[in-house]
């Protein structure tokens, strides 16, 4: 059940009719070990314009060619754009079409796909320094960003441009970028026109006003005992939402007994909310800032609130450096962060609280906000490091623009953000949750309305408030978006502030004080779904989660999950993830039995592949992590791992332990004690757990020693990749901790304790944990499993994480990949969320299938890659895929392969952000986690 599995990198290929061509069939018949998709007839490049269609550019420089462009006037996904743009792709034997191993085009060397079989056999994942990486640029962006989504899930917009580059990149996607700019290949040959800069009128919509008194009454009704908010099924106050209620009451009714009661309650909760680590430790920056802003808005003293000097403590705990300094401080992403802020909203609110309190923000804290402004003017919600992928949203942009305007001296950044907001506004007056979406979000619209009003765009702000007024429910509250039927406090709070024309920069209970324009929107955690009230209890509804995992639409014939939508190729790794989830809950043992029997009895998918075509046991490409995962499933359900699917997986693991590192062209062994073809800490841990559960302690000694050597001595964290790249990863640390905890004796007890403390330190204010996709569902679920090794000590963190997971569960029972980004249930994230929420370690997970009955099955209606040094091509032009010639005289863009072991082989559906590349590589070997 793995983490980076966030957006199954091999899932989601929606084969269009145009791709079911004779060329693809012919190719499949002539190449034994790889699958492929041929190109469609490309739209003429001239038909793509800045407002119609999207461009894709592929750099064949490492192979002696140049940059070739393609156009798709109606792209639905980045994958379709690549093929409809005139390019062909080939996958790998192990992972199928979903792993882009080769790309070709008729415009270069007669369509030869690269890299050729002579340098890359495309059986398994290519090595990290030689793969096709995926880059994107939106209209108005003049630099490339490593795609936060894979090509099959990314939906290009008009004027977008994609690029594919062969070589390597680092974990953050800050190296290995295309050597050409987006404008050099963009439709029309130049920058896409952006919105006008001046204060222009907003969309033409009917006038409308929010019924503020009704909203205030609804907010008051959400308070238990008139003092605080409690989530459904819980008795613990939700301090975050209680501050939201206080802000809304201050805006709606001003000073009064009701607001005083809430403020007094929060003052009494200051220790629990903002100083959970202890009164002498750094406060939770976001919580401290929110309480300080409440004090400042209600004529209180933020230097004496709940017994704490909130402003003084914020000033004292600013990060002196980030992880790149060589001596990372837990809770610090970069220099200038407020300790533990983790998100742009926490950083912005801390700056604002200091400004409102008359304190000059410490050096670097304001500059840190400007570093979050993306090329298109949007602001990313996560505190990324410089150079990392930047993908902003309207809500965060509004908040940060207001704070930067309040801080002063940041005119360029504010103007850029304002331009983005003007462009992001929909014709209805609403703003979407994420850039490019067409559905209005109440929270995003409220934030943006506050920012636009403060920055002088009153017409646009009025249009936004008009849209908000049409979203107000009969009970006075607001839902999350225009389709919501239930009111929620999270969106209602900022909507009230927008409706009264104020923000947290100007909110006050004093009698009229109109001299300072509003400058920052109400704080509300990161910019998407908050920890909302979900099913009763502290965590998600596991029965609904199991129902989603076992639904016929997801579990193909009740036996396996598919690697590609609407196709029959099995994703065996994901199938085992689902089985682990079913075993952990016990909510559908017959479904679990059906899956296990299919795997154990040599069941074949529609391509005739069995489980051991995936594990490779007994063959040239025996994958240690995959064998460990399959063996562990056998152990969990009390089957024999020495005879599972007709193979002895325990013997296979023993044979897979490396005696020494392999040398090129053999890349099977990373180090002594590693398993063959196990590219990640997660995969390596699975092998150890399986050996230990089989009683093979002696055989596991070398792998255990190698895993122990990978732990960062200073922090206690583990990296994600093997060989190690220096990163620190929640998911891998949790898995390694579960593994080391299983080792007999106390030799590794201190290492486990240190790992758990590090995991706990990474928890975000809303209970989530940072992972490949941002505030990640998978990371939170694995953190629950890891922290449950010492459940008494980490009870508070586990409870918060479970509430976070509940907030990410959808109506169909499945889970989002992360709090940010695209909405919608994902099978891999759901499997991890369901199993992880039980807190049961993989080391002890057991589920007897005695007395169960399998469900009836419905009738079916290597050598290392070599990089070609680019030669002198001459010419200097970009070639279009629909143009003549094979590109022999094109100028090379010369992307040199970089020797960076942390780079990941790109799967078509990738993860997100800092660890995305590592995740891609990790799951490239069949979802091996």
Q: What oligomeric assembly is this protein in?
A: single chain
- Report the biggest beta sheet as strand number plus sense, adding barrel if it closes: 6 strands, mixed
- CA-to-CA gap between the ends? 7 Å
How would you sum up the global shape?
globular
Q: Counting H and I runs of at least 4 residues, what is the number of helices?
A: 30
Can you offer a commentary on this structure?
The chain is mainly alpha-helical. Helices cover 35% and strands 5% of the residues. The strands form three sheets. The chain has a six-stranded mixed beta sheet. A three-stranded antiparallel beta sheet has the order 1-4-5. Strand 6 (131-137) and strand 7 form a beta hairpin. The N and C termini lie close together (7 Å). The model is unreliable at 1-34, 190-200, 512-536, 861-876 and 885-929 (pLDDT under 50).
Which key terms come to mind for this protein?
mainly alpha, disordered C terminus, 30 helices, globular, 3-stranded antiparallel beta sheet, 929 residues, 11 strands, 5% strand, 6-stranded mixed beta sheet
């Amino acid at each position: 059940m793995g983490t980076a599995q966030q957006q199954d990198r091999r899932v989601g290929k929606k084969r269009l009719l145009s791709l079911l061509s004779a060329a693809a069939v012919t190719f499949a018949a002539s190449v034994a070990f790889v699958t492929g998709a041929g190109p469609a007839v490309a739209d003429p490049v001239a038909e793509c314009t800045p407002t119609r269609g999207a461009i894709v550019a592929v750099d064949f420089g490492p192979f002696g060619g140049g940059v070739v462009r393609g156009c798709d006037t109606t792209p639905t996904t980045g994958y379709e754009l690549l093929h409809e743009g005139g390019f062909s792709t080939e996958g790998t034997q192990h992972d199928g079409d979903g792993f882009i191993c080769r790309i070709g085009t008729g415009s270069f060397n007669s369509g030869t796909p690269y890299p050729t079989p002579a340098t890359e056999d495309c059986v398994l994942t290519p090595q990290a320094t030689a793969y096709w990486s995926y880059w994107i640029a939106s209209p108005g962006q003049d630099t490339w960003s490593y795609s936060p989504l894979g090509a099959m899930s990314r939906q290009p917009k008009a004027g977008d441009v994609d690029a594919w580059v062969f070589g390597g990149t680092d974990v953050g996607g800050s190296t290995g970028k295309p050597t050409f700019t987006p404008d050099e290949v963009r439709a029309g040959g130049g920058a896409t026109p952006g919105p006008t800069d001046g204060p222009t009128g907003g969309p033409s919509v009917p006038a409308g006003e929010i019924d503020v008194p009704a909203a205030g009454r609804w907010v008051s009704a959400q308070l238990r005992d008139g003092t605080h908010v409690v989530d459904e099924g819980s008795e613990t106050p939700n301090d975050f939402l209680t501050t939201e209620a206080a802000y809304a009451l201050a805006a709606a009714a001003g000073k009064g007994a009701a607001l005083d009661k809430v403020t007094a309650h929060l003052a009494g909760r200051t220790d629990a909310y903002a100083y959970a680590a202890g009164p002498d430790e750094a406060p939770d920056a976001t919580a401290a800032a929110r309480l300080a802003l409440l004090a400042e808005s209600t004529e209180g003293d933020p230097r004496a609130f709940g017994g704490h000097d909130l402003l003084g403590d914020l000033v004292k705990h600013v990060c002196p450096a980030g992880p790149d300094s060589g001596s990372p401080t837990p809770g610090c992403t970069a220099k200038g962060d407020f300790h533990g802020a983790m998100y742009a909203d926490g950083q912005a609110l801390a700056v604002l609280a200091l400004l409102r309190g008359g304190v000059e923000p410490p050096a670097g804290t304001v500059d840190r906000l400007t570093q979050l402004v993306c090329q298109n003017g949007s602001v990313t919600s996560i505190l990324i490091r410089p150079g990392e992928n930047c993908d902003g949203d309207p809500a965060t942009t509004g908040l940060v623009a207001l704070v930067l305007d309040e801080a002063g001296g940041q005119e360029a950044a504010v103007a850029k953000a304002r331009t983005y907001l003007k462009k992001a506004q929909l014709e209805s007056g609403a703003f979407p949750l994420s850039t490019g979406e067409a559905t209005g979000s109440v929270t995003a619209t409220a934030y943006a309305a506050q920012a636009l009003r403060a920055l002088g765009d009153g017409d646009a702000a009025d249009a936004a408030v008009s849209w908000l007024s049409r979203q107000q429910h009969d009970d006075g509250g607001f839902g999350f978006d225009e389709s919501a039927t239930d009111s929620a406090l999270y969106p209602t709070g900022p909507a009230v502030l927008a409706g009264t024309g104020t923000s947290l920069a100007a909110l006050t209970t004093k009698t009229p004080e109109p001299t300072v324009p509003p400058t920052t929107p109400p704080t509300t955690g990161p910019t998407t779904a908050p920890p909302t009230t979900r099913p009763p209890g502290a965590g998600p509804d596991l029965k609904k989660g199991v129902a989603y995992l076992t639904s016929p639409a997801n579990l193909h014939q009740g036996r396996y999950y598919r690697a590609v939508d609407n196709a029959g190729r099995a994703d065996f790794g994901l199938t085992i993830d689902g089985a682990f989830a079913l075993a952990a809950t016990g909510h559908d043992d017959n479904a679990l039995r059906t899956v296990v029997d299919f795997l154990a009895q040599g069941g074949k998918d529609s391509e005739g592949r069995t489980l051991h075509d995936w594990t490779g046991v007994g063959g040239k490409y025996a994958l240690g992590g995959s064998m460990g995962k399959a063996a562990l499933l056998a152990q969990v359900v009390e089957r024999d791992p020495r005879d599972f699917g007709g193979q002895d997986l325990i013997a296979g693991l023993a044979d897979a332990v490396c005696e020494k590192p392999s040398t090129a062209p053999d890349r099977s062994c990373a180090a002594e004690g590693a398993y063959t073809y196990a590219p990640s800490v997660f995969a390596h841990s699975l092998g150890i757990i399986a050996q230990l559960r089989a009683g093979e302690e002696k055989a596991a000694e070398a792998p255990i020693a190698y895993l122990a050597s990978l732990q960062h001595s200073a922090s206690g964290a583990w990296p994600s990749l093997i060989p190690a790249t220096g990163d620190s990863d929640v998911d891998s640390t949790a898995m390694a901790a579960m593994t080391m905890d299983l080792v007999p004796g106390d030799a590794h007890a201190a290492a486990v304790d240190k790992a758990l403390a590090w995991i706990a330190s990474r928890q975000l204010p809303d209970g989530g944990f940072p992972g490949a996709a941002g505030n990640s569902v998978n990371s939170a679920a694995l953190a629950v499993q890891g922290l449950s090794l010492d459940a008494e000590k980490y009870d508070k963190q586990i409870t918060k994480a479970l509430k976070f997971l509940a907030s990410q569960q959808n109506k169909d029972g499945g889970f989002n990949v992360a709090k940010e980004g695209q909405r919608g249930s994902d099978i891999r994230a759901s499997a991890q969320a369901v199993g992880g929420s039980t807190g049961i370690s993989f080391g002890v997970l057991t589920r007897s299938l005695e007395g169960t009955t399998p469900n009836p099955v419905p009738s079916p209606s290597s050598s290392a890659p070599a990089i070609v040094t680019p030669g002198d091509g001459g010419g200097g032009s970009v070639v279009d895929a629909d143009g003549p010639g094979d590109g022999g005289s094109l100028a090379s863009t010369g992307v040199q392969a970089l020797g960076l072991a942390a780079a990941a082989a790109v799967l078509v559906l990738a993860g997100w952000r800092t660890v995305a590349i590592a995740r891609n590589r990790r799951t490239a070997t069949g979802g091996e986690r």
